[in-house]
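The passage that follows is intended for readers who have already worked through the single-chain material. We present the inputs for a multi-component assembly, then the predicted structure in tokenized form, and finally a short commentary. You are encouraged to pause after the input and sketch how you expect the pieces to fit together before reading on.
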Amino acid sequence: MQSKIKNWAESIVIVAIFLVLIQTFLEDFAVLTGWSWNTRRILIFTSLGFDLFFSIEFLTRFFSGMMKKEAGRYFMEGKGWIDFLASIPLLLLNSGPAFFALITGSGFFFGMGGLLNILKIIKAIRIARILRLLRILKIFRQIKHTGSRMAQRHVAKITTLSITTFVFTLLVFSIFTGFVSLPTSESKVMKNEKAGISNFVTNISQERPSVAARNFADYDSDLLVVKQKGETLYTRYDNPFYSTVFGPGDYQYYKTADYEFFFDTRELSQIQALNNILFFVIVVMSVLVFLIYYSPHFALTVTDPIHVMRRGFMENDYNLEVKIPELFREDDIYQLGKAYNEKYLPMKVRQEEISEGQTSLTMDDFEDLFK
Amino acid sequence: MEMNAQQLLPTLSSGAFFPGESWFKIHSLLKEVLGTLIDGSLLPGVQRQIYDKINFSFLSVFGSQKGFQDKTKDGIFTFVKHLLSVPEGRKAFSGSYNAIGRQIVDKYIEAVFNDHSYVHFELIKVQRLKMSKEEIQNFLKVSLLLRPVIYTFGTNMHKDNSSGIITTSFAEKVEESLRKEIPSLPEALIKSAVGSNVSFNDHKYLQATSRLTSIMSSLAQSIKSDITVDRGASTPEKSWFSIARRNYKYFGWDIKMLDELYRFSAENNW
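Having made your guess, compare it with the prediction:
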């Protein structure tokens, strides 16, 4: 009964992993192709749902391991660290803050100190998102891509190593570029916007504010709204359009003296989304290449010859030679296979002839003989 | 049964099977029943091969007439029935029967005639068999059926080694007996069948059909029809020929013949 529940839970986890991968892709795809804010908001909710699910999954496995005094083993050998990195940090740094911002509105962030905090949070969210790629390793663990446990372990090891290296390189690089002032497309846009605002404020005395705002909008196509003491001087679109298309992360907000400015940041988000999709595709393709190409290659060049030799050693009437591919004939394993073919098998056949071909059948092969 | 006697005895000597009987008695009873059951399916198969499938018309090449062909068939069938009553003969016959039943003779002779290399030369030019491909296939099948003849004479004392090879002097005695037992058999067939138990290393003038009979019988006796060929393993026949090439001296086989047949098995993925 307990094993049935466990199998059922594992099946749910596998389905959830598949779904979260689709969700991860859709979240960036939605930004890239300009899906409506309502749809993107649903994806933020589902993202939180998945992060919660995987956090509970990790905690359940971890505490279950603790009960059996195997928590350390689960964390290290059982790849619990992947479960951890792909759940709790994402919940705390990615979907959690995004969800909180959504339900509290922008005021929550402004209340915390304004612009600087929002940017830091958005950066942390973006950096943490990279960890989601590790979830692909979770699905890899579930696939029995070859019959050999050794092949499974080796291929899993090399896949984990390469994907983790890729993800952590991205993560460290993102943290580094986030906290060191390096010129980026984002900083360049912000610099232009600030220069435009400064220019606007300087020249405002020379013309009517509404005309100055319109001129500013003509000059900067990302300018969405200009307000003076809460009154709208200029708006590029009407309010229904904003509420349908724009979400909290889709615009940049500045406040100078009596003026407030809103700039469109969707293009920057699209560049980021494109990068995210690229990273996602790289990781998925790497895993697929390991599964489709490397795993059979490992089986062909390592475990298959071992399997053939093992059967030859264990079974009296199994005398098939190890097939030696021309390309790999110098490999140690095929050198061994050659010795097996040329020395052991002929000797075995002669020995069998002397012992009159004893069968390898034992009573274990006839368990139900007298039943 | 012999290997697992200790485990089987407590159960088989219990009330449900053979209460209180000795292992020797139980073993002989079971062996007898098993033999009868196997004969029940084996003999009709042999009969079908001899009377329906193998075409004995090749005997006419050796001057045998139609009436003699029927006599020869009867003689061979009687011989096989007798052979199957001898444990060692019964064991050896599995190779012959499998070689015929699994089309080993047909496919390799087909390849030999397509290739026109060493084996073809040995059959046609050296042994001078003026026969068609089909006739040679049938010749070899009969040679295979008669090959275990040495076991009807109690061979253990005449073996050169454990590989089943017999001395040429013993082979001559067996030939003589076979001539008497089936008088309608042509000399070439008797020599081919009995000679297949002689080493080619000691007897370089051994007929090509003898050498082929020996190889095909051993091949068919060794390989299982239902074996699972693992990924990473060579095919059963290719494996067998490759190993045979390294053991050719021990078993007295013609290495050139093995090389050619190995090539056929590799080329055709047999």
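Commentary: Chain B touches chain A at residues 3-4, 7-8, 11, 16, 162-164, 222, 224, 227, 229-236, 238-240, 242-243, 246-247, 250-251 (CB under 8 Å). Residues 37-223 of chain B form one domain. How closely did your sketch match?
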